[in-house]
Design brief:
heterodimer; A: alpha/beta; 9 helices; 5 strands; 58% helix; elongated; B: 386 residues; six-stranded parallel sheet; two-stranded antiparallel sheet; Uroporphyrinogen_deCOase (chain B); uroporphyrinogen decarboxylase activity (chain B)
C-alpha cells in the first residue's frame, strides 16, 4: 500500500507526474475496493490542501483549474479499482451559469472542488434559464443551489432564479450561493441569495456548513 | 466658432494636457457605454438591433443627450455578430439574451506547439482559423469567398458605425482623442485566450513550460504589428491592450511567461511613438512594481486594487483610470455613489495624470441604476476642476 500522505501532498503541490505514477503503480497492484476508497480520500484531502493554499494567496485561479483537471485524471486512473460501492454523498448541489452568460470556468472550478469534498453536483451548464433551475430543483431536491456568472448582467438573471424558486414554493427548501466576478454583499442581498463568494474554496466551505 | 466646436476644443485640451503631463482644467471623463447598453437604453431589442445597425444613429444620439462624458460615449461593438456569424465563429457567440461573448474554446492542440513556434502566422492561417471559424474549414476557393464576405461585412459595419459616431462627436463637441484606436493582446493572453484556452494553458505552463514561453516569444511580432494604429506616431493615441491572465497565475509564472513579452510589446509600441492603454483586469497589486517599469505615460485602466497605492507608486509616471465600482451604481444610493466619486477624485486627481472612468465597461442597462450613473457623471463634470 502506498503512503497516502505522500499522495495527498503531491496533489496539494500539483505534481501531476508524481500523482499519476503513484496511482498507476497502485492500480497495477490490483488493490481491494476498500484500499482504493482510501486513496480517493487521500486525493480529496489533497484538494483541500489546494484550497488552503489558494486562501493563503499562494495559489491562484489558474492553479485551481489545473487542480480540478488533475483530480479528474486521478479519479480516471482509479476508476477500474474503485468499484461500484459509491461513498455516501455529503449533500447535493444544483449548479449552473445563469441565463445570458456563457462563462463557465469559475463554475467548473467550484464543481470539481465540491465534488472532491463529497457533494453530488448536478451541473446544468451555461446560459441556464430560471425555469431549468426550478425544474432541476423539483426533480433532485438538492440542499444547495449554486449560481455562477461573470458578466454584470448575471446579477439580474440570478435574482430572477430566486424569484422563480419562490413562486414554485421551493425557495425555503434550498440554500442559495452565488459566485463570480460581479457578486458582492450588496448584490447578494438584492438577489435574495443566502451567501456569495468570489472564491470557489470558500464556496465549498459555505456549502459544507449548510449540510453539516 | 460654434458652441460645439468650442466645447470640442476645450475637451480635447483636457486629454492633451493629461497626455502631455500637464494639469488639465478639469479631470477628463472617458466613459464608453457599450453598444448593448445603448440599444437597451433606447428601449430596443438587443438580439434584433445588432443585425440592423443602420438604425443605430437614434440609439447613439440618446446616449449623447443623456450621459455626460468628454469622449463620445457611443461606439459600435468589437464583437459584431455579422462577421462572426459569416465566419461560423466559435470564439464569439451570442447568448440567449442577445449578448455576444467569448466562450472557452481552443484552436491549437498541445502537440502543435512546435509548428506554431516555427511559424506562428502560417499556423494561425492554416490550422487555427479553420478550427475557430468553422465556415473557413472548407476548400480554398470557398474559404476565400467566406473570408471576403465576412470582411466586407466587417468593414461596412465599421465604416457606417464610424460615420455615425463621427457625426455625433462633432455635433456634441466630444474630444476625438482619449478613446481606443486599435486593439492587441499581451502575447501570453493571446496564446491563452485564442489558441489554447484558459483551462489548457494552466496545464501547459506545467507540462511544457519552455514551449509556452517560446510560443509567446514567437507571437510577439504579430501582437506588435496588430497594435500599431493607422496613423503616424502621436502622444495622443491609444493602443488598447486588455490584460487578462496575469492575476490568475502565480508570481513565478507571471515572471517567466507573462511579463517578458508583454513588456516588449508595450516598450516597442512606445519606442515607435504609440502609447498603450492597458485594461488592468482584476487585481494587479501583486505586480504593481512591474507596471512601474512600463514606458512613461502608459495609460492604465484599473478594475480592482488599492487606488492610494497605485497613485503613490505609479501616479507620477503613468496615467491612471478606473477603480470606480459599477456594482455600486446598481446597489448604492445616489449619495453613496457621489461620495465614492469624490473619494476617488480626492485620491487620484492631485497632480494630474488621471482620467475618470469606471472599473469596467457598463455592458447592460440592468447592470446599473441609470439615475446613479447620470448623477456620478454630472458630479465629476461639475466638481473635478483643478
Amino acid at each position: 500500500m502506498m503512503d497516502l500522505n505522500v499522495l495527498t501532498q503531491a496533489i496539494g503541490d500539483l505534481e501531476e507526474g508524481t500523482v499519476l505514477d503513484m496511482l498507476n503503480a497502485f492500480v497495477a497492484a490490483n488493490p481491494s475496493e476498500e484500499e482504493a476508497q482510501k486513496v480517493v480520500g487521500a486525493c480529496q484531502q489533497g484538494m483541500a490542501l489546494v484550497g488552503d493554499l489558494f486562501d493563503k494567496g499562494e495559489y491562484f485561479v489558474g492553479d485551481l483549474i489545473f487542480a480540478g483537471e488533475l483530480l479528474t485524471n486521478a479519479i480516471d486512473v482509479l476508476k477500474p479499482v474503485i468499484g461500484s460501492g459509491d461513498a455516501a454523498k455529503v449533500g447535493s448541489i444544483v449548479l449552473g451559469t445563469v441565463e445570458g452568460d456563457l462563462h463557465d470556468i469559475g463554475k467548473n472550478i467550484f464543481k470539481s472542488m465540491s465534488e472532491a469534498a463529497g457533494f453530488e453536483v448536478y451541473d446544468l451548464g451555461i446560459d441556464v434559464s430560471a425555469s431549468a433551475f426550478v425544474e432541476k430543483v423539483k426533480e433532485v431536491q438538492p440542499q444547495v443551489v449554486g449560481m455562477s456568472g461573470v458578466l454584470t448582467l448575471a446579477l439580474d438573471a440570478m435574482k430572477n432564479v430566486v424569484e422563480e424558486l419562490h413562486k414554485a414554493g421551493l425557495r425555503d427548501k434550498v440554500k442559495i450561493v452565488i459566485g463570480g466576478n460581479p457578486v458582492t454583499k450588496e448584490a447578494c442581498e438584492q438577489i435574495g441569495a443566502d451567501a456569495f463568494t468570489t472564491n470557489a474554496a470558500e464556496g465549498v466551505k459555505i456549502c459544507q456548513g449548510w449540510v453539516s | 466658432m460654434t458652441d460645439a466646436k468650442a466645447l470640442q476644443q476645450e475637451r480635447t485640451k483636457l486629454f492633451e494636457d493629461v497626455y502631455d503631463g500637464k494639469i488639465p482644467k478639469r479631470v477628463p471623463i472617458n466613459v464608453g457605454l457599450t453598444l448593448e447598453f445603448a440599444i437597451q437604453y433606447a428601449g430596443k431589442d438587443l438580439a434584433e438591433m445588432q443585425w440592423n445597425t443602420a438604425a443605430l444613429e437614434e440609439v447613439f444620439e440618446k446616449l449623447c443627450q443623456d450621459f455626460f462624458t468628454d469622449t463620445n460615449p457611443a461606439g459600435i461593438s468589437l464583437r459584431n455578430p455579422l462577421h462572426y456569424k459569416l465566419l461560423g465563429a466559435r470564439n464569439f457567440v451570442m447568448s440567449s439574451s442577445g449578448f455576444m461573448q467569448h466562450p472557452e474554446v481552443h484552436g491549437l492542440e498541445a502537440d502543435e506547439y512546435d509548428a506554431f513556434i516555427a511559424s506562428p502566422y502560417d499556423c494561425i492561417m492554416e490550422k487555427i482559423l479553420p478550427r475557430i471559424y468553422t465556415e473557413l474549414n472548407t476548400n480554398p476557393v470557398q474559404r476565400s469567398i467566406v473570408f471576403a464576405k465576412a470582411f466586407k461585412a466587417y468593414w461596412d459595419e465599421l465604416i457606417s458605425g464610424g460615420m455615425m459616431t463621427q457625426k455625433l462627436t462633432d455635433k456634441y463637441g466630444y474630444s476625438p482623442i482619449g478613446g481606443i484606436e486599435v486593439l492587441t493582446e499581451a502575447p501570453f493572453d493571446f496564446v491563452a485566450d485564442q489558441l489554447r484556452g484558459f483551462k489548457n494553458i494552466t496545464g501547459d505552463i506545467r507540462r511544457y513550460p519552455d514551449k509556452v514561453a517560446a510560443a509567446c516569444e514567437a507571437v510577439t511580432p504579430i501582437m506588435i504589428k496588430a497594435g500599431i494604429p493607422p496613423h503616424p506616431p502621436s502622444p495622443y493615441g491609444n493602443t488598447f491592450i486588455p490584460l487578462h491572465m496575469a492575476p490568475f497565475i502565480r508570481d513565478k509564472d507571471f515572471e517567466k511567461f507573462y511579463w517578458p513579452t508583454f513588456k516588449k510589446l508595450v516598450d516597442e509600441l512606445a519606442a515607435m511613438g504609440y502609447p498603450s492603454m492597458l485594461f488592468v483586469e482584476h487585481d494587479w497589486m501583486r505586480y504593481i512594481d512591474y507596471l512601474y517599469e512600463l514606458p512613461e505615460n502608459t495609460r492604465m485602466w484599473f478594475e480592482y486594487g488599492d487606488p492610494k497605492l497605485v497613485k503613490e507608486k505609479l501616479g507620477k509616471k503613468h496615467i491612471i483610470m478606473g477603480f470606480y465600482p459599477i456594482t455600486l451604481l446598481k446597489t448604492g444610493t445616489k449619495e453613496q455613489c457621489i461620495d465614492k466619486a469624490k473619494e476617488l477624485i480626492d485620491i487620484l486627481a492631485p497632480g494630474g495624470k488621471y482620467i475618470f472612468n469606471f472599473d469596467k465597461g457598463i455592458i447592460t442597462t440592468d447592470s446599473v441604476n441609470i439615475e446613479n450613473l447620470q448623477a456620478v457623471l454630472e458630479y465629476v463634470a461639475k466638481n473635478a476642476d483643478y
